[in-house]
Design goal:
heterodimer; A: mainly alpha; Helix Hairpins; two-stranded antiparallel ribbon; 2 helices; rod-shaped; B: alpha+beta; 3 helices; 4 strands
Chain lengths: 126, 169
């Protein structure tokens, strides 16, 4: 009985650890996206400040290509929209994973209690 | 996100009512956050010095630099001689691959703005770090108290057990 429980407990612990790992990964993705969004925001504010006579370039590979301000702004806006969409998606996954982790934690706690009880029973029998 | 969570938690939960396990979890999380703040501060510091360096370089350029000879770095170790064709403007990397041509004054202004922004962020993070540090200290204090209490209880139980066996014999 105790042996079986122990196996199950180990299995659940492994599951939990896998969940945690995945969670950490998603968190770092979120952080990266947040950073990208922020960078694009600063670029946008900077582009908004650009005067008519100032030129805008885009770095493509090792060369700077002259670009239209309007086009650049559009590009940045588009990118920001995309990143915001991604952020929302990742946020949803994060809340989802938090729920999963909580339920897994409950399962673990219950199993642990069962295991301890079984051990106690075994100890008193001997 | 986790920063916000624990902050809300601190306002709602009386830390003296938490169990030792919960307290150590909390402490671990706080320590992780503190570490994160430290590394953020470090990268901000790097950014700050880079902007300051750029600003200094801009200040060295004056309109009478035009036509003067300079060595242009092609790579980190190869230079070719060149002449300054335009000493009135510089091209600045504003992020995500975009560069803007600015005259010297607005370039200086840009650097000033960036430095001010980075410094502001650093101050914010420092304040947050201090707050978290205080919370961690409080948590550690409560933990210490709990551990002492636990030890006291165990000692009392042991003493009682010893007394009971002594009474029997």
């Amino acid at each position: 009985m105790a042996e079986e429980l122990h196996k199950k407990l180990q299995q659940e612990v492994e599951n939990f650890q896998a969940l945690q790992k995945q969670y950490q990964k998603t968190l770092s993705v979120r952080q990266q996206l947040g950073g990208q969004l922020f960078e694009n925001e600063t670029v946008k504010t900077e582009l908004d400040l650009v005067k008519k006579d100032q030129e805008v370039y885009k770095l493509i590979g090792p060369v700077l290509i002259k670009q239209d301000i309007e086009e650049a702004l559009q590009n940045v806006n588009k990118r920001m929209d995309y990143i915001k969409g991604e952020l929302k998606r990742v946020d949803d996954t994060i809340t989802d994973m938090e729920k999963k982790q909580d339920s897994q934690r409950d399962v673990l706690n219950k199993l642990q209690q069962q295991y301890q009880k079984a051990q106690l029973v075994a100890a008193t029998k001997n | 996100m986790s920063a916000k969570d624990s902050h809300e938690g601190m306002q709602e939960i009386d830390i003296t009512k938490l169990t030792l396990q919960q307290l150590s979890q909390l402490k671990q999380r706080l320590e992780q956050e503190l570490q994160m703040y430290q590394s953020s501060l470090q990268s901000l510091k790097v950014a700050q010095t880079r902007y300051l360096n750029s600003k200094e370089s801009i200040e060295k350029i004056s309109p009478d630099c035009k036509g003067k000879e300079i060595l242009v770095p092609l790579t980190g170790s190869i230079y070719v001689p060149g002449k300054v064709a335009d000493a009135d403007s510089v091209i600045i990397d504003i992020g995500t691959g975009y560069y803007v041509q600015k005259d010297l004054d607005s370039a200086k202004d840009y650097m000033k703005r960036r430095v001010a922004f980075v410094t502001e962020q650093m101050e914010k993070i420092q304040a947050m770090g201090q707050e978290k540090g205080c919370i961690r200290d409080a948590v550690m204090e409560v933990m210490e108290g709990k551990i002492q209490q636990e030890i006291g209880l165990q000692k009392a139980a042991l003493a009682r057990a010893a007394g009971a066996t002594a009474g029997k014999s």
